[in-house]
């Protein structure tokens, strides 16, 4: 989206620069050209100020954290080596109107972290569950072995296209619902809130009722699991890409005795 807007502005500027000059004629004394406005002198950018007031990072002891990470947000451990927190964000939490993002407003980044982390947790389950609990049965229409592959990377190209389409449509529904909630609540929106869990008017199938302190602890636990899952799913993907087999197959092979171990007695004297 940013690229499209930037391209549009660049194209408009180029068109204005190469437009035909307007020809005007005047008689008598020429009017003096208006004086150019004096350039405004601005101070340091908010990003530069945030880094100028940086402090030690709890997550990276050998690095510093910008001043925008002051530890007040839940789960803030000063991890921002690329300085995302020093860049103003768009109008996601202002009802979708205007570009009212302010530096230090970490709500948008927390929203992105939670959504990516939740997807990563589901992906980790998808990597492990088929090998532990079995795969879905196939049939003549889909193919008997359509869901039998334990390597998720290979299974993705083996399952029927309609099965992938179902997942895509369900994810699309969730995204549209999430965006509508953000637009409805505007600045009062809490990052990651899908109106599920405790609270009035929410879907709470497990009857969760935590006090404020316990609820904050559960939020921190979810955040830690999200971060761990994002790292873990990358490791699972890399290992499956390198080995060509599923994770459970690799773990199972590590727990079995190799063939040469059972033949080790052939090289030992008799009676030992």
Q: How would you summarize this macromolecular structure in one to three sentences?
A:
It contains eight helices and two strands; from the N terminus they run H-H-E-E-H-H-H-H-H-H.
Outline the structure in words:
With 272 residues, the chain is mainly alpha-helical. Helix content is 45%, strand content 1%. It is built from 8 helices and 2 strands, in the order ααββαααααα. It has helices spanning 2-17, 46-52, 107-133, 152-155, 161-185, 212-243, 247-254, 259-262; strands at residues 55-56, 64-65. Strands 1-2 form a two-stranded antiparallel sheet. Helix 3 (107-133) crosses helix 6. The longest helix has 32 residues, at 212-243. It is globular, with a radius of gyration of 29 Å. Residues 1-31 have low confidence and may be disordered.
């Amino acid at each position: 989206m940013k690229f499209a807007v930037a391209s549009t502005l660049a194209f408009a500027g180029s068109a204005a620069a190469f437009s035909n000059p307007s020809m005007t004629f005047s008689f008598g004394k020429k009017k003096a050209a208006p004086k150019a406005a004096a350039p405004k002198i601005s101070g340091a950018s908010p990003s530069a100020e945030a880094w100028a007031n940086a402090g030690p990072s709890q997550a990276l002891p050998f690095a510093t954290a910008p001043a925008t990470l002051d530890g007040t947000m839940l789960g803030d451990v000063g991890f921002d080596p690329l300085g995302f927190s020093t860049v103003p964000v768009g109008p996601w939490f202002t009802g979708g109107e205007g570009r009212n993002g302010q530096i230090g407003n970490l709500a948008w980044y927390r929203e992105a972290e939670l959504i990516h982390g939740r997807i990563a947790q589901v992906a980790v389950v998808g990597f492990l569950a088929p090998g532990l609990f079995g795969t879905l049965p196939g049939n003549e229409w889909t193919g008997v072995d359509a869901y039998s592959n334990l390597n998720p990377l290979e299974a993705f190209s083996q399952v029927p296209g309609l099965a992938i389409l179902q997942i895509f449509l369900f994810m699309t529904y969730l995204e549209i619902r999430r965006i509508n909630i953000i637009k409805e609540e505007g600045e009062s929106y809490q990052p990651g809130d899908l109106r599920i869990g405790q609270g009035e008017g929410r879907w709470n199938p497990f009857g969760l009722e935590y006090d404020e302190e316990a609820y904050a602890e559960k939020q921190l636990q979810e955040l830690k699991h999200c971060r761990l899952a994002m790292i873990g799913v990358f490791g699972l993907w890399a290992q499956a890409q390198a080995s060509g087999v599923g994770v459970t197959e690799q773990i199972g092979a590590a727990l079995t005795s190799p063939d040469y171990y059972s033949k080790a007695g052939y090289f030992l004297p008799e009676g030992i």
